Fold this sequence. Notes:
Layout: H1 2-16, H2 24-29, H3 31-51
Amino acid sequence: MAFKMAVADYFYDLAKLPIRLDNLELRNKCVNGINDLNTQFASCHHAWLMSEGIMENYVELP
Protein backbone atom coordinates (compact mmCIF):
# COMPACT_ATOMS: atom_id res chain seq x y z
CA MET A 1 0.00 0.00 0.00
CA ALA A 2 2.89 2.37 0.73
CA PHE A 3 4.12 2.06 -2.86
CA LYS A 4 0.68 2.89 -4.27
CA MET A 5 0.42 5.95 -2.04
CA ALA A 6 3.92 7.09 -2.99
CA VAL A 7 3.09 6.79 -6.69
CA ALA A 8 -0.17 8.69 -6.16
CA ASP A 9 1.68 11.50 -4.36
CA TYR A 10 4.30 11.58 -7.14
CA PHE A 11 1.62 11.84 -9.81
CA TYR A 12 -0.17 14.58 -7.88
CA ASP A 13 3.02 16.67 -7.74
CA LEU A 14 3.70 15.93 -11.41
CA ALA A 15 0.20 17.05 -12.38
CA LYS A 16 0.75 20.41 -10.65
CA LEU A 17 3.71 21.22 -12.93
CA PRO A 18 3.32 22.74 -16.42
CA ILE A 19 3.38 20.32 -19.35
CA ARG A 20 6.57 21.84 -20.72
CA LEU A 21 9.53 23.19 -18.78
CA ASP A 22 11.53 24.17 -21.83
CA ASN A 23 12.73 27.61 -20.78
CA LEU A 24 14.87 28.76 -17.90
CA GLU A 25 12.38 31.32 -16.58
CA LEU A 26 9.63 28.72 -16.26
CA ARG A 27 11.98 26.20 -14.60
CA ASN A 28 13.09 28.84 -12.10
CA LYS A 29 9.45 29.65 -11.34
CA CYS A 30 8.68 25.96 -10.72
CA VAL A 31 11.81 25.03 -8.77
CA ASN A 32 9.86 24.18 -5.59
CA GLY A 33 7.53 21.89 -7.51
CA ILE A 34 10.47 20.19 -9.18
CA ASN A 35 12.14 19.66 -5.80
CA ASP A 36 8.89 18.21 -4.43
CA LEU A 37 8.77 15.87 -7.42
CA ASN A 38 12.32 14.69 -6.71
CA THR A 39 11.37 14.02 -3.08
CA GLN A 40 8.28 12.07 -4.13
CA PHE A 41 10.33 10.02 -6.59
CA ALA A 42 12.72 9.10 -3.79
CA SER A 43 9.70 8.04 -1.69
CA CYS A 44 8.50 5.81 -4.54
CA HIS A 45 11.94 4.23 -4.81
CA HIS A 46 12.13 3.62 -1.06
CA ALA A 47 8.62 2.10 -0.92
CA TRP A 48 9.45 -0.16 -3.87
CA LEU A 49 12.62 -1.41 -2.17
CA MET A 50 10.77 -2.00 1.10
CA SER A 51 8.11 -4.09 -0.67
CA GLU A 52 10.59 -6.32 -2.49
CA GLY A 53 10.19 -9.96 -1.50
CA ILE A 54 7.22 -9.29 0.77
CA MET A 55 5.05 -11.89 -0.97
CA GLU A 56 7.68 -14.65 -0.98
CA ASN A 57 6.59 -15.95 2.44
CA TYR A 58 2.99 -16.50 1.40
CA VAL A 59 1.81 -19.84 0.06
CA GLU A 60 0.25 -19.76 -3.39
CA LEU A 61 -3.49 -20.49 -3.30
CA PRO A 62 -4.95 -23.10 -5.67
